[in-house]
Amino acid sequence: MTQQEQAFPNTEQKTYGASAGQIPIVNLPTGNGPSVRSVNLHTPTTKGGTAEGKIQFREQKGPFQQLRSLLNSMLVLIFFIIPFINYQGRQAILFDVNEQQFHFFSLTLWPQDFTLLAWVFIAAAFGLFFITVFWGRVWCGFLCPQTAWTFMYVWIETRIEGSSNKRKLLDKAAWTSSKLIKRSSKHSLWALTALLTGCGFIGYFVPARELYLDIFTLSGSFWVSSWVWFFAICTYLNAGWMREQMCLHCCPYSRFQAVMFDGSTKTVTYDAARGESRGPRKRNQTTELGDCVDCNLCVDVCPTGIDIRNGLQYECINCGACVDACNQTMDQFGYQSNLISFISENELKGEAKPFWCSARFVSYGLALFTFIIVALIDLSSISETQFNILRDRQSLYREVGMAEIENTYQLRIRNKTKTMKRYQITLDNPQRFILMTPSVIQVSAAEQLEYPVTVKAKLVDLDHGREVLQFSIIDIAKPEQNVSQSSSFFSPST
User: What does the alpha-carbon distance between residue 481 and residue 377 come to, in Å, rounded to a whole number?
Assistant: First the structure.
């Protein structure tokens, strides 16, 4: 008997298509036969809460929820703490928009270096895809900021308004002084959390130590305060009001994740062959029903309000709450655990294969490895000095003295370090070309210097017309740090 026949023992099945078994059609029983619920054909539940459709999911304890809480807490703490870490007298990680610099401890990136961040983000994306091949949407369930802040807001709500059942009753209750106090307390704490989150995010772009003081004393600048309040409002709406709607309708990852799944992907899965036909029963009662006691806890604890027993659904964020809830029930009835578990389709069929045999493992792994190497190469090639040459556009050349030719250039030299630098300017052919301006210059930390120079050559030494001239900028303290760029030297074309 197939898995589907076990799940629908009293139904007639037909197939349509090119070959048998391609599209199963199930004739649902009517009249006094088994109900739709008993044959596991629930309509997907996205209105798992009150009559208004608000999902009030239950708090659940268990190994997966302990792991999720630990990871979410670490994520939130790291998010708030990082801006307060100092390094060499300044904020260690800072996107300085005004100065157009990104400080990462001793590394300073300028807009010209931001290709490195692009490689890092691409590598991170392929890393996410690589993990998804094996563990499904574990990012969504255990590390996504939307999940972390949603559970944080629900924790605040539960401490003030009580369990999910009490919250549902409170939603329907008339407005009394008790309800007003609870709701105002909850929303006040939500708003404070949102404001702290806004400060935490903007603290990566402006110095965090001054930011919090400025915001809470109402002395911040207009634009900084506006951005803090903008992200605070977004946090309040996303985590407090929209919650699962972000996962169901706004997050693009939920829509395209399925293309990365294969038979070896471990996802939260209900074992229908073992669980059906489901139904309530007393403990220690002998029954021909499956192991699912139809307690509905897997739906009650789901933050997106779905019924995992309906099969794989894009709304599932793989948080494992239903796994913990079901195992709790299985323990109470003395049944084997993991009726709902993180398991792959192949494992359910008893056809588990080594993960390295997957084509997706090879392709995503190679892509991830490639972009990590590209990022490391780009990082190693970043220079402490940026150098550009602009020619004088008013004249190509000047004839001076005894048949001599001069060309004028504007050297643009940027010191990308946090210390003052002294540079030596050199030419690739000093026998023919003479630098008429001082060759040693000093550039302050993080400064861009515009330095005009004049180069002279004798007409008899020139190939008339245009020649290539190379300038080099050498760090006197660290000669290995040098950059070069070519320009043109013009002369009469005979």
Answer: 17
One-letter identity of residue 424: Q
On whether the pTM is more than 0.90, the answer is no
Q: Say how far apart CA 152 and CA 320 lie, in whole Å.
A: 17
CA angle 10/13/14 to nearest 5° reads 165
Decide: 109 and 101 in contact? Cβ < 8 Å: yes
Distance separating alpha carbons of residues 102 and 110, to the nearest angstrom:
6
Task: Write the pLDDT tens digit of every residue in 395-444.
Answer: 888 888 778 899 999 999 988 887 889 999 999 888 889 999 999 999 98
List pLDDT tens digits, range 128-151: 888 888 888 888 999 999 999 999
Out of 3.30.70.20, 3.40.50.720, 2.60.40.10, 3.50.50.60, select the CATH number for domain 385-490: 2.60.40.10
Average of per-residue pLDDT values in the chain: 84
b/e sequence 391-414, b meaning 16+ C-beta within 10 Å: eeeeebbeeeeeebbbbbbebebb
Q: CATH 2.60.40.10 spans which residues of the chain? A: 385-490
Distances in Å between the Cα of 36 and the Cα atoms of 41, 270, 309, 363 are: 6, 18, 13, 42
8 A C-beta contact, residue 203 and residue 227: no
